[in-house]
Fold this sequence. Notes:
The structure is a homodimer of 418-residue chains. With 418 residues, the first copy, chain A, is an alpha+beta fold. Chain A has helices at 2-5, 11-21, 39-54, 99-115, 141-146, 152-157, 166-172, 199-202, 241-258, 295-316, 335-348, 362-366, 393-412, and strands at residues 58-61, 67-71, 81-85, 123-127, 188-194, 207-213, 215-224, 228-229, 264-266, 270-272, 279-280, 283-292, 319-328, 331-332, 352-357, 372-377.
Amino acid sequence: MSTTHNLRVDGARLWSTIMETARFGATPAGGINRLTLSQEDGQVRDWFRDACEAAGLEVRVDALGTQFALRRGRDMTRLPVACGSHLDTQPTGGKFDGILGTLAGLEVMRALNDAGIETEAPLLLVNWTNEEGSRYAPAMMASAAYAGEFTVEDIHSRRDAAGIAVKQALEAIGYLGDEPVGERRIGAFVELHIEQGPILEAEATTIGVVEGGQGIAWFDGVVTGFESHAGTTPMPRRRDALNGFAEIALAVERIAHAHGPTAVATIGEAVIGAPSRNVIPGRIRFTLDVRDPKAETLDAVESELRAELDAIAGRRKLTIELTRIWRKEPVPFDAGVVGAVEAATRGLGFSHRRMVSGAGHDACNIAALAPTAMIFVPCRDGISHNEAESATQGDCTAGADVLLQTLLTLANAPVRAG
Amino acid sequence: MSTTHNLRVDGARLWSTIMETARFGATPAGGINRLTLSQEDGQVRDWFRDACEAAGLEVRVDALGTQFALRRGRDMTRLPVACGSHLDTQPTGGKFDGILGTLAGLEVMRALNDAGIETEAPLLLVNWTNEEGSRYAPAMMASAAYAGEFTVEDIHSRRDAAGIAVKQALEAIGYLGDEPVGERRIGAFVELHIEQGPILEAEATTIGVVEGGQGIAWFDGVVTGFESHAGTTPMPRRRDALNGFAEIALAVERIAHAHGPTAVATIGEAVIGAPSRNVIPGRIRFTLDVRDPKAETLDAVESELRAELDAIAGRRKLTIELTRIWRKEPVPFDAGVVGAVEAATRGLGFSHRRMVSGAGHDACNIAALAPTAMIFVPCRDGISHNEAESATQGDCTAGADVLLQTLLTLANAPVRAG
């Protein structure tokens, strides 16, 4: 044990690997345009396969194109301890989202090879297909199918905007693999990722020990008042849908604050029907996104908001409709794996905090199958899904070191009585 | 005098005239689509000319197509006392906006003919070209040029969306007249119109004695915050442009109320930049329309609002820009003509109130040249610029009777020392 406690990744090699693969789909502004199953995605997959094989890993591809690279362990009867993330990007994505977690996994394998270390359980590195969801819906498609949420036939038949089905796209780049989706079992899963939020940077904290994924509720709303002339309708006689909506926006904000620091609520879209400079808006449609790590908080935000909407509608003689169109329950990660991440972080001496993932990740799907946790590192200004996305070499190295130590702990732990 | 005090218009004839001309550009939904200088506008102009000539009026057309129909008076050295409005409509306009005032003027002439009454000063009935502004900007184009705000050459060169210039359109329907614009002088102007607002109907009042036109200030605003991830950005760290805008909307409403009952302020358009359901809005553009009969109130609303914007921007770390793009000063009508309208109304026994016009009218332009006032009658639900626009025969008749008595008073009044 003492020898592996001192083991570190090669941060410079990890960084140069990130920069090397950034050429597949590189944009002039320094980002990456590497939509899932595109030619560029095919190129980075080929590169990844070759690099894994060069590191002695055995690479297989499943029927949804997900790449699995196995590093043998001393006890091949044990389920592999897995890590990884994704190599696809948004159309104007950055160099770190998904890529850090995947290539840090590769760096872990290389570092173990360099040190000549064999783990008890095998290790597995995964590149999940279509985490981003930009070309094909839904996002996190392959890990969801892996976890049994969708059938492979369903996912194969999904089409992009050009009408190309997932199965065709897989064939076109040579990644319609023969391994049945979900057949490969894993013992645990650890995903390293940039935070995609501002908290770690703001608190000058290096590592986020991620305890789970937030629950999400999506709503569509409509406020209906009465469209009338801006010049001839006295203020007290108005039924202004926009001003009613303004009260709703501030109520949403106030309620989310009251359930802080965890709850967040966002109106991302709002559109006036038949807008005109000199007409009082009679109708406005809006969207609402509410998130919290606890299902009870999602419930409370919704019921408090509905009470506010009734009050606003009554006071302003408006009709306000709010429809919940989707809800994803919170995903708690495994206490044991979270504890292993935290212990590894402490062992390495990094500043850290426990937190919840605000965004969705493949790990949130895998958590339904196997003990799972995530490791977050800071990204500049919390910016992600943007060519300006940035993380420091030091933080990337720190995250990879935590990943390395966590995998060693999990893979070398005594087998628990089953 | 006593004979003319008992004179009334023929309300049934006025109503059937309104319904007769409603066939020019009639829409299936019961409205009128009669854009200025269209073929349909040409048809109603021809009908109007013929009807005026049949009533013994002398019809001339100026270089912007405005029709002037003169009824001779006993003293032709006196300037004519004028009335009228417009016969063009919005693309989905109603049967009363502008039309009532023009055809009520015709009915007044017919009623005087029937009674064999000759006035001291001549009377003049006007059909102004392009009051609506739907096909050619600006609205109230011909009366503004008549008042000297634009040159005829400027207006002639304005083009519609199809590229057709005003001069071409006038020639196409035979209404490029030979009378120089503004040459014809008038002694007074009285315009009867539907209110286009809800006040008279709500108060069950028959006649609005209009003291002036409101001042109008138009603004464009931009709120800039920071676009970020709806799931990963904690509430206290957000710089949400939409929530800042919501505070602005409520501040606008509060300030207008505080300057009530006259002031009105409306945000008619608001557009989020790059809206997405799970992205905190980083930018929102909006328009603002502020109106009040007093210039000082427009000033006060603007300065109070700017102070609020500064406070909101500071508190929320947003940038808020507000640019005044247009301002039209209030137009006070002539106390003498307003008094004549009020006296005529009282003499007829109609319920009435003094009020200010919320919308713009040709009378607001003419007020710069000659003593002017307006007469309002109720319209159903305050709806206008809409095929559902409606007024009762009784109210139309009442408005025409007030117009008749007002014109008689003004045209028969002793000449004031000049």
